[in-house]
Design brief:
Distance between the termini: 6 Å
Radius of gyration: 11 Å
Bound molecules: iron/sulfur cluster
Structural class: alpha+beta
């Protein structure tokens, strides 16, 4: 079973912290003003940093 990185868009505050820490994985959607995952399989160290730094803890791994 793989893991897939997701952002809960309801909870995301659009602070861009994850995008700044990990621009290869997260991207800011100007329309919704929320972050989106552009590379859900990426497992760089920065992903965990982004998860830890998210003020509303809305980034998580989901089992597939
Ligand atoms: Fe949204 Fe969290 Fe990323 Fe901030 S760090 S943009 S709240 S997902």
């Amino acid at each position: 079973m793989g893991k897939r990185l997701v952002i809960d868009e309801e909870e995301c505050q659009g602070c861009e912290s994850c995008v700044e820490l990990c621009p290869e994985v997260f991207e800011f959607d100007e329309k919704s003003e929320k972050a989106v995952v552009k590379n859900p399989e990426a497992d760089d160290d920065c992903v965990q940093e982004a998860i830890d730094s998210c003020p509303v803890e809305c980034i998580r791994w989901e089992e597939e």
